[in-house]
Structures
1.
Amino acid sequence: MRRNPRTERATKVATTNPSKSPWLTNLFHPLMIGGMFGCIAISLVAGVHLFFPEWNGTYIIVGCVLAALEANYSYRLIRSRRLQGGEVLRFQVVEIALLFIALKIGGYVGDRWTDVWADVQTWSQDPLGIADPETIIAFILAALSWWVSTQTTRDLERLGEPPEHSPYYTSPRESLTRRFFWAGVLLLLITGLYYTGIVQLLDASRPRVPGPTINVLVYFLLELVMLGQIEFTRLRNQWQAQKMPMPGELTGRWVRYSLVLLGLAAFLAFLLPTGYTVGLLDVAGGGLRLIVGILSLIAQILLFLLTLLLWPLMFLLSLIFGTAPPRLRPQSLSLRQQQEPLSNAAPGGWFGVLRSVLFWAATLGMLFYVVRNYLRDHPELLESLARLSLIRTLRRWWTALWRRLTGLAEALGERLPGRRSPGEGGLQAPGGPFHFLRLSALSARERILYYYLSVLRRAERQGLPRRRTQTPYEYDATLSPNLPSAQQELASLTQAFVEARYSPHTVDARQTRQVHTYWQQVKAALRALRDGKGGKRAL
Amino acid sequence: MQGLVPFLLVVFLIAVLLRADFFFTIAYLFFAVYVLSRMWNQHTTSHLHVERRFTDRAFSGDQVVVDVTVRNDGRLPVPWLEVHESLPVELAAPPFYREVATLGSRARRRFSYTLQCRRRGYYPIGPLTMQTGDLLGILRHSQIEVAPQHIIVYPRVVPLRRLGLPTRSPLVALPARSPLFEDPARVMGVRDYQRGDSPRRIHWTATAAAGRLLVKQYQPAIARETLVCLDLDAEDYGQRQRQTATELAIVVAASIANHVVVQERLPVGLATEAWDPLLESSARFFLPPRPERAHLMNLLEVLARVQTTKGVPFVELLRRQSVHLPWGATLVIITGRESEALFDMLLYLRRAGSAVVLILVQPVHSSATLRQQAAMVGVPVHRVWRERDLEAIWP
């Protein structure tokens, strides 16, 4: 039996999109996409205004929004009517032509009728005059908006589909988020250039651009809302394809939690410092000068104390040899002088410096946090970075330096009475308030050992110590009745510890992450026990 | 989401280059969303607990309801949670259970599903994998794996109204002339204490009455004990019928053991060498004959999980286990193949004072020589090729 390709395609569409909310597809998505394109168009038109202040480009903004809305509608219309090949092409040519006509008409908005009529009359002599530069630019912008909107609608429709086995495959979610992000970057660049000006871009002493930009804020808020919506749609489609019923309250909770998350994030974002008066290098230089100042102050104090101690001796020597004793003269504390250049150089005085320091600390801390987590989440990237010869050389130097330093510390520790050498007893949990153990420096095996030993230490603090004669499994049997909520996790942690400690198996990062989860849960149970929420003790 | 971090870096760079304060706010906004999502995710994954409740022992044909409770002990809600429980294909179709949930702060959610215990075995229930993530899809989904628990499905027990096992007495123990074995439950009388007698044998009541030390005299006896010897050596079963025949052998062993303990209230034991999925290796099982029901359950537990193996030949196993048996014990030998070596061993066992029954569970026709040999040994041979044959042999 011959199959109808249209019917097949329709069936595929129906199976890949098991259920669609008409409210989402007909209203929410078009409005959001249209709104985002409108925000970009506002900045674009504002940019053109710099060169042609008399020009009214509002119609381009409206045109871009309408093009985005129309693209969404036409895409779904083509799908529902099951148009193919030449039919789609004809449909789209008509669409583009109508868009051009609409923009041409939009260009006349605000003009007098006589001017419009005069312009129309010139078309017969110069047909190319219809496509004047202004109309062409407006058309390119609107067509771009139409095309990107079509692609966005297509990707939204494909959310939750099973991935294709192709090396060039990009998931619709990736495609959408990448598009939104880079459109956002473009928006920032256009808006920034509009406020700064291209000529002043290289001028380092130019004033900063204060105040919020509404269309930028709206764009990014819409983008965040869309990201949440994309994730929700993707998961929903995936669950429905797998015939997993979705709880009814999930949609409402998703919206509520997303709003709370975005509200909290926006609150924090507006709380953090944005302006700085002192550049990064100035702040770093100031910090260095501050450290040098403190060190010199300490040296001066020490010198003064030494002089104070030696003064009686010098006095006695002076009596013997008949020379006058040196006068005790406290050294001047020059810390203030050391720091003056920075505070004087910064506009706004100390407050400006403090604000700048805070700003740079927050910014650099943030970048460090993001990059560190990114590399942790992408170990393959970390591996390829570690293979770079420069990084390898740096690591070798650092390892050699670190060994030298730790060797020095150990040698010092051995010479000091009553002190333990750092290496004694193998992997030790941090004891004192200033003893820190850097987990990231440990190997996967050592981390597992650390997690287990940490549990032992915490349990001991709760009055549940491990006896020296107890094996890990015996201790598990003793401790687990006290932690009813984490018995399985404790057993798994014990098992992982025994494996890491006594077996030659390779311990990989995935296993360490799993054990880390167990450790967190056992810790939480121990905390609950300490707070009296974990039931009775049974040791 | 791959693009967030590069995007954040680019936004920071643009903000620094253009010195636009508001762009920093945009970068902070995304950074705050990233950090909050991450913290939320870490908090929820460390506060999720799972409890699985089910009856971990069932008989073939039973239905077992498994209750899974997912508990969120944290203050923050879990926006979405995908639960995936892997199940053995013998007990559930499809071999998994999946559910989507959302959990509020300090909330719990209970799921339940039913296992159809169609086949005996030792099965893992799980592992259970929970997947959760952030609301915007900017982080990788976190996975929590909960270790599996196990269920034992006992083999099918066919009721046997009267087991025709050869025995020399309907009683539990037979009186014997040899004083080698004495039954402490059968006090025959008392006699004067002699040097070397165990103090445990002193009959204190009689001693008090007689005014001199008297010790109990026990009746010499032999016990009627049944040992089921199950052949699970893969070599003794044909390639095509191995699965069916060994399953049948196990059903026969379980049915006989059940009948001896429950109906006859006599001791029964088990000897076999098999693959144990619990130990993940071959193991020799020898459960000495005992009459308690708890012992029967232990025996059924072993029968539930054993699988065929390639190890020591069955005849060798019989030879090794026969030394543990008291005189007069009954041996029920269940195997798939009769051989000359087997009949030699049966003859040896008979001569050693054991009553022997041979049950063949594989439909193969034995040669005339073997049939003749079996007749000469005088061992009753039963051929059980289907479960209902068992009923026919012992109606």
Note: Chain B touches chain A through 66 residues (CB under 8 Å).
2.
Amino acid sequence: MKNENSQLEILSNDNTPSSRRNFFKKTASIGAIAAATALSANEATTGDDPLIMHHVKWGQKLGDPVTKNRYGVPSAYEHNVLRRNTKLLASGNFQASIAVTPIHESMGIITPNGLFFSRSHGGTAHVDPNEFRLMIHGEVNKEIVLTLDQLKRYPSVTRTHFIECPANGGQEWRGPQFNSLQFAKGFMSSAEWTGVYIKTILEDLGLKPDARWMLAEGSDNSEMGRTIPIDKVLDDAMLVWGQNGEALRPEQGYPVRLLVPGWEGNLCVKWIKRLEFSPEPFYCKEETAKYTALKKTGKAIQHFYANEVNSTVTSPSPEIPWDGIKVGDMVEIQGLAWSGMGTITGVDLSFDGGNNYVEAELKGLILPKSWTRWSYIYKYEGKPLLLTSRAMDDAGYIQPTVDQEVGVLGVEGVYHRNGVETWEVTVDGKVNHVQIRS
Amino acid sequence: MFKLDRKLVIAASAITAAALFAAGCVGGESTATPSEAKYQNGKVTIDGGVYYPVVNGKTGPYAVNTQSQAGFDYGRVPTANELKAWDTDVTPTSPPPEGSGSVEEGEELYEEQCVMCHGDFGSGGGGYPALTKGNAVKGQKSLTNQRDKPDNDGPIRVFGTYWPQASTLWWYIQAGMPHPNTKSLTDDETYALTAYMLNINEMSIDGEEVDEDYVLDREKFLKIKMPNEKGFEPNIDGPTALDDVRTYYANPTNFGAIKVDPAKRCMKDCQEATSKVVRIQGAGISDFLPPISIVRDLPKEEGAFDPKAAYESNCAMCHSSFLSPGSSDWDGYTGKGIDKVYANGIEGTEGGMPAKGGSDLSDANFKSVVDYLISGK
């Protein structure tokens, strides 16, 4: 009887004393054991899980030294947890494009830096921090140029905020298109940001009375620029260099980006080089040709700032359905809610596509202009469901129905779609993106 | 320091809790994290959202250092030359520099540096934006179009029909174009391309048609009136702009939002009897890169390099319509030898080819993609 490394033979229930002695002798003699060996072969029966009954393959040899991966990387098994893109969302190439976050795999209210959605208008710039300069000028009493080290000497604050592209969900004004949570709602991510309030820097510079607007301009290929009203600059706009405890990633504007909490992601200008204060707005390309929302009146909303209250069911999702679910199984229906106008105050959940709602529960940290987790414990009844979530915020807003939103804005706005979203759950636990219309 | 009227936000020490609560909280029952619909200067917030004043050393849930943060005076004053070098925005109140360029010169530049992405006469293609859809004034009328029925035409949103200001075009051409080689055009070239854009959008300046003989200069540029100048809301110009924006976003109806007393929100029988489930039409959009998978396994070994697949994901956007795989047009580019073609591709060209097409392919793999492009196999 050969016992060496064959798991099958180890499981063969051959537990005579001589055979076992033989086994241990032989295995010891061959030294390294690649395959799993039995913890207690004499007790193995067909009902036992071999993964429990045998030593796991990583349990008997030395692991990596601590000197490996001086900067850690995810487990190789997580290789499918990725930002993804589609040609539909590329202005010609993948330099003026977006790669979206796998929020179906998201946990908590923080997006790992490597999965933070990435949108650029001329590719990801790679800025040498030693060559970084920030110019602040225009309607200020004192104009300045700062190096990165000088900027970082200002008193810092740390805040958790989502950044959302206002085109999140914008492909679905005329009906659902993406059977995917990543693409239906993944044009956003969330991080803990560290930087300085611009108002802190202005304490020294001083604003002139006619300073009504601030241009934020990037140093990248596209010189992405946006105009910010002074109200927001003096409230909570920040220049940030820290993202989840480390430097910004290049895709997020290394070494410094603007953060305009709660407002359209494109206002959070990356690879920043210049802030100019002015009496009049700048009419940048990305606030006229793009990021304006055409209403059915033929007029377009410009300077459309805050991402309105919104929510989604993240579990189940089209990507991670309730496979194999049985009547009577307990499940946690989970989701995210967020508002760029304030703090989430509540989330309602409907099982019939928004005809009747129950109150879900918020969980974890409930922060302003931040992702907020919500949850509802449910006993599966075996019936098809239409899961619709509806969030509210402390500014007093509630998500509109799809009909309500389209009724006011029409279907050509592209941006700022925050009507409720519905997942159809079929009797076999599959999840489809649908809309409820009358 | 700020003038008093600029003090929307002032140091925490200046606020008393009493004044804060007198102003009233909006929508919140908790006093732990007060939020306000108004700034401390009494004006409502500009975005229709809330404001979190510093109360008892906290803004919302965050503790803050309430010491004075004045006196940080890092950095230095920029020189006049530095300001000139960076302060290059062109806006309705900050005109472009002197210069001129003709439609004819613009067309020549366009054919050299722009056509490979924006298509013949600005018709678009390969996913890059179209620059015109014909007559701008006529096209502007399409902005009320709604594709809410399958056969409806959509609104035309190109430069001529949609953009409110010509300054945006001049600025963007010079700062952001041509896409693979930005900030490379002279002022005169920028005027020429602007003139060409006006021409292909069939526009007029001061009653004069921008025809093929037209020469644009700064004086004429400043007279451009865009057909959709008044097509945007809220007002953002002039001294009342901020209050105009404030007023606009104070009315949720303007932007499709809904405010509700939480106690009165609909919880039962909320829908019309006619409500129905709308599903994704056909297969929907699912050309995701990479395809969606939630499997936890070890990544597969990379297969042999496939030049055609690399072409599809890195080059096809431009090269499907220009110097496409196997095109006889390549004959005009291979005369100086294949090494020259490789070098141009790897380093990029002023004619618009980005270095390695913007890809991160190795030199060897890139060369095999070039071979594929030229031979078509």
Note: Chain A has a mean pLDDT of 92.
